C-alpha cells in the first residue's frame, strides 16, 4: 500500500511539475479559493495530503470537479507550490482510468440552453472527460 | 499593420458581436486581422499537467501559423488568450514538453516558441496606443459609468500572461477612459464568475456571479465590461441584472459603427 501511494504521489508531482514540500502552511490558497464552500477537501489539504502520500481520499473527493483553474491559488501562493496544478493532476489520475469520466457526451443535451457559450461544454469536457 | 487573428469557437456562434466588432474596430485602427484558414478550437481551458500533449496541439498550430508569417497572434476571447499564451510559455520554457509536442508534428510543422501572443486589449494599448484609440472616438461615451470585469483568465497566471498587474490591473479602465466614459473600479473585478461550473453546480455559479454584480451595483456602475463570453453569460444569467457588454461592442459604439439593434 505504501508503495502504491508513493508511486502515485511521485506521478502527481511529476505531471504537475510542482513541489508540495515547499508549502509553509499559510493557507492563503484556501482563503482565496472561490470554490472553497463547495469543497470537501480544500486546496491547502491537497498540498499536505499529497506530500504525505494520503491520496486515496482526494481521488474520491468532489473537490476535484469544483476547481475550475481560475489560478487564484496559483497566483497568490507565496511559495510557488501552485495548488491548482496538484488538483489538476489528481483529477487526471482519476479520469484517465477507463470508465471514470465525470461528464459523458450523452449528458450534454440536457445541459444546453440557447445562450450557453460553446466554450462551457468544451471546457467541461476537457476537465471532466478523457 | 497585419496580425494573425484567432477568433475561437464561441466567437463563431454565441459571441458573434465580440468577433464582428473586433474586426470592424481593427479596420478603423488600420490593423488587418488575418484569420488562418484551418484554426481549431483551443480547448476552452488550459490543462496544467506537463504530460497533456495532444490537447495543446491546436494552440501550437495556431502559434506556428502566426510565427510563419512573422506576425503576432491576436485573440479577443479571454479563454483562447489564456490557453494559447500558456501553451506558448510551456513551449518556450519546458524543454521536455516542447520536444514531445514537436514529436507529434511533422518536421515542417515544428514550432520553436517564437510567436508573440497578444490579447486584443494589448493590441490596443501597446501596438495601436490608447491615444490613437482616443483620436478615433467620434461618439464619446460621456456619462456612462462602467465597471471593468477581468475575471480569472485575462490576468492569471501573472508571470505567463504578463499583460498587467494581476491584482491591480488598469488596462480595461484605461480603455474605458479613452472612450470618454467613467471607469468604476470594483474589488471583485479579478475574481472568478464560476465559468463552466454552471453545468455542474448552478447554485455555486449564482453565488459567485451575484456577489460580483451586487458589488458593481454598490459602486454605482451602470454596466460591466468583459472580454469573455463565459463571464458575460454567467454574470447575465446568474447575476443580479446588471447589463454586461463586450469590450469590442463598447469600442464600436464610441467609434460610431455599432449597429442599432432596434433598427432591425
**Major sheet summary line of chain A:** none
Shape of chain B: globular
Low-pLDDT segments of chain B: none
Question: In angstroms, what is the radius of gyration of chain B?
Answer: 18 Å
CATH class designation of the largest domain in chain A: Mainly Alpha
Q: In terms of per-residue confidence, which ranges of chain A show pLDDT below 50 for 5 or more consecutive residues? A: none
Give the SSE string of chain A: HHHHHHHH
Number of domains of chain A: 2
Widest sheet: strand ordering of chain B: 2-1-3-4
Quaternary status? heterodimer
Overall average residue pLDDT of chain B? 96
CATH superfamily of the largest domain in chain A: Alpha-helical ferredoxin
* Corresponding CATH architecture of the largest domain in chain B: 3-Layer(aba) Sandwich
Overall residue-averaged pLDDT value of chain A: 94
Report the strand count of chain B: 8
**Integer count of domains of chain B:** 2
Give a quick precis of the structure.
Chain A has eight helices and no strands. Chain A has about 130 residues and is an all-alpha fold. The mean pLDDT of chain B is about 95.
What does this structure look like?
The complex is a heterodimer of chains A (130) and B (264). By secondary structure, chain A is an all-alpha fold. Chain A has 2 domains: 2-96, Orthogonal Bundle (Fumarate Reductase Iron-sulfur Protein, Chain B, domain 2); 102-130, no CATH class. Helix content of chain A is 51%, strand content 0%. Chain A has helices spanning 2-16, 28-32, 43-51, 56-59, 63-66, 72-76, 83-95, 118-128. The longest helix of chain A is centred in the first third of the chain and has 15 residues, at 2-16. Chain B has 264 residues and is α/β, with parallel strands linked by helices. Chain B has 2 domains: 2-121, Glutathione S-transferase Yfyf (Class Pi), Chain A, domain 2 (Up-down Bundle), CATH 1.20.1050.140; 130-263, Rossmann fold, CATH 3.40.50. Chain B has 12 helices and 8 strands. Chain B has a 4-stranded parallel beta sheet with strand order 2-1-3-4, sandwiched between helices. A 4-stranded parallel beta sheet of chain B has the order 6-5-7-8, with helices on both faces. The chains are: A mainly alpha (130), B alpha/beta (264). The A-B interface holds A 14-17, 34-35, 37-38, 65-66, 68-72, 74-75, 82, 84-85, 88-89, 92, 103, 111, 115-124, 126-127 and B 8-10, 13-15, 41, 43-52, 55, 77, 79, 94, 152-153, 156-158, 166-167, 191-192, 194-201, 204, 207-208, 229-230, 233, 236-237.
